[in-house]
Design goal:
Structural class: alpha/beta
CATH class: Alpha Beta
Order of helices and strands: HEHEHEHHEHHHEHHHHHH
Number of helices: 14
Strand content: 5-15%
Strand order of the largest sheet: 2-3-1-4-5
CATH superfamily: P-loop containing nucleotide triphosphate hydrolases
CATH topology: Rossmann fold
Number of domains: 1
Number of strands: 5
Helix content: 40-55%
């Protein structure tokens, strides 16, 4: 459970940050925030990444997704003073994939980069994606993109949640393997887990603040905004936020198949079967 820092803890934290800031040669280097859909990426995009001390936030995916223009020129990435993301490896929009995901997941590009990787149990991602993509994802002000959303929605609604999970799991495996490879090639990689944010918030924040600095006010807000709902709301974009929701939503036989397919990934990231 998250608790407010004591004055002594705040002072110690401030001293550590100042020491890090003074001695680190990479303190102003740009940072790349990689994740997947349904990993609280909207919360990080709309709030957390916008409040990182000393770094300007750019969410290229959101810009491309919400603006009524076609993007066909390469995006620019500054070496210093920016945080880019979320970069969702699960992106489906062609422009986002071609102009953002492909360039930033190129291993040559990544070799001198600092990166944060925010992950979640892939089984919970599958469940959350089913309800979001099939029922609750908000429509886009751009007509063509609304049509894209509705097409995906129709496809998802034609399946049961178990059918969807079994159909998409291979794609999920590919995305996680891409993240594993990418994280091993970056100059500096930090893995953050959604489950830690929910169940072990203090440790989660400690890991996050080894890479970036955020005010205590933002920490408190993140804690409040990330708490799971008391009741599941299938009509909300944020359905519940609970961990291991797949245990209730999927049939045991479906979970068994997923566990077999995802075994290496679950083991790699220490997700309990």
């Amino acid at each position: 459970m998250y608790r407010l820092k004591t004055a002594a803890e705040k002072l110690l934290k401030a001293i550590r940050f100042l020491a890090w800031k003074y001695f680190s040669t990479s303190q102003t280097e740009s940072i790349y925030f990689y994740t997947f859909h349904k990993c609280a990426s909207t919360l990080f995009s709309s709030y957390v990444l916008q409040n990182i001390k000393g770094l300007y936030h750019i969410d290229y995916a959101n810009i491309m997704w919400t603006k009524p223009i076609e993007y066909n020129t390469p995006l620019t990435f500054k070496k210093k003073k920016y945080i880019y993301g979320p970069i969702r490896l699960s992106a489906r929009n062609e422009s986002v994939i071609n102009l953002l995901v492909h360039p930033t997941t190129n291993l040559e590009f990544a070799k001198d980069k600092i990166a944060l990787f925010f992950i979640r149990d892939p089984r919970d991602i599958l469940v959350s994606q089913y309800y979001s993509f099939g029922y609750t994802h908000s429509l886009n002000p751009v007509k063509e993109k609304t049509e894209e959303i509705l097409s995906i929605r129709e496809e998802v609604q034609s399946l049961t949640i178990d059918e969807y999970a079994l159909k998409i799991v291979d794609e999920q495996i590919e995305n996680f393997n891409k993240l594993i490879e990418l994280s091993s090639h970056c100059k500096q990689s930090t893995i953050l887990k959604y489950e830690d944010m929910i169940e072990n918030f203090d440790s989660f924040i400690d890991e996050l603040q080894k890479v970036v600095s955020i005010d205590e006010r933002v920490v408190q807000d993140l804690h409040a905004k990330s708490r799971p709902k008391k009741e599941v709301d299938n009509k909300s974009h944020r359905r519940s936020g609970n961990t291991r929701s797949f245990e209730k939503d999927l049939k045991p036989e479906t979970t068994k198949v997923l566990n077999q397919k995802l075994e290496k990934i679950l083991t790699h990231f220490n997700f309990s079967v």
